[in-house]
Amino acid sequence: MGFLGKLFGKKDEEAAVELSSAVTQQPVYEEKLQTIDMSKHNENLGKVLIDMSKGSKIDMTKHTARVALAMDYSGSMDWLYDNGSVQETISRLLPIALRFDDNGELESWLFSNGAERLKAANADNYSSYVKNVMKKAHMYMGGTNYAPVLKEMVTYYKDIEPSEIPAFIIFITDGENSDTFATNAVIKELSEYNIFVQFIGIGDEDFDYLKSLDDMKGRKHDNTGFTAVKDMNKMSDEQLYTEILRQYKDWLNNK
């Protein structure tokens, strides 16, 4: 099993949908099209926010932010879209947007060599978001460039939808980027605005570039966080939400 298999784990078995003797096995994500109950995720997120607010200048239970997702769409991510892992991730991330976001939506982008903004994920469409939105995008699975999607997001939050409300970007990738120079320039520009990017590296990649961002010079302030996640399925909601939000909370406190 490759490192992506270690990340999410293989399903014990895929669902066979027998509509007739001629119907073959369906992709696992088809099982997830029914409404997913997020009440437990919401409850666990609430506990994390209460804990984070203790001794903090920011009451995270009352915090408002514009929440966005940048999701890797490179070739190595292919089977994670097909087996339901990305859909599960969206279902766990959406409660953050429902809690924080001023319009209750998770603004979403895909990235590979380029980038594409998608219809936002919300309480009405999230349960089939991969099939009905991501899989119908005009993106091709290719390499891994961070700069194009970050540039689009800067333009969106700075020029198209400007606001005094901070933008919190959750950036998920399984690989190192091939455009470090261009990404450095965008991250330095980002530091001029009310935008924080939480990078999440999944799998066994070293992510030397993302680790190096802590020491990046030339920024107005440290506007990025990084966490490595080897096996998301083994993380409880409390662990996952804490890892996603702890550096963002520190950024808010230090502004």
How would you describe the overall organization of this protein?
This is von Willebrand factor type A domain. Pfam families: vWA-TerF-like. This protein is of the alpha/beta class and 255 residues long. The protein has a single domain, classed as Rossmann fold (3-Layer(aba) Sandwich). 37% of the residues lie in helices and 16% in strands. It contains nine helices and six strands, in the order H-H-E-H-H-E-E-H-H-E-H-E-H-E-H. A six-stranded mixed sheet has the order 3-2-1-4-5-6, with helices on both faces. Strand 2 and strand 3 form a beta hairpin. The radius of gyration is 18 Å and the shape is globular. The chain starts with a helix and ends with a helix. The relative contact order is 0.16. The N terminus is likely disordered.
Provide key terms for this protein.
255 residues, alpha/beta, Rossmann fold, six-stranded mixed sheet, 37% helix, disordered N terminus, VWF_A, von Willebrand factor type A domain, vWA_TerF_C
Provide a concise account of the structure shown.
Helices cover 37% and strands 16% of the residues. With 255 residues, the chain is α/β, with parallel strands linked by helices. It has a single domain, classed as von Willebrand factor, type A domain (Rossmann fold, 3-Layer(aba) Sandwich), CATH 3.40.50.
Sequence of secondary-structure elements:
HHEHHEEHHEHEHEH
Shape: globular
Instruction: Please give the alpha-carbon distance between the first and last residues.
Output: 43 Å
CATH architecture: 3-Layer(aba) Sandwich
Which consecutive residue ranges, at least 5 long each, have pLDDT under 50? 1-8, 10-35
Figure out the total of helices.
Answer: 9
CATH homologous superfamily annotation: von Willebrand factor, type A domain
Rg is 18 Å
Number of DSSP strand runs: 6
Instruction: Write down the domain tally.
Output: 1
Strand content range? 15-25%
Strand arrangement across the biggest beta sheet: 3-2-1-4-5-6
CATH-assigned fold name? Rossmann fold
CATH class: Alpha Beta
Mean pLDDT: 87
Structural class: alpha/beta
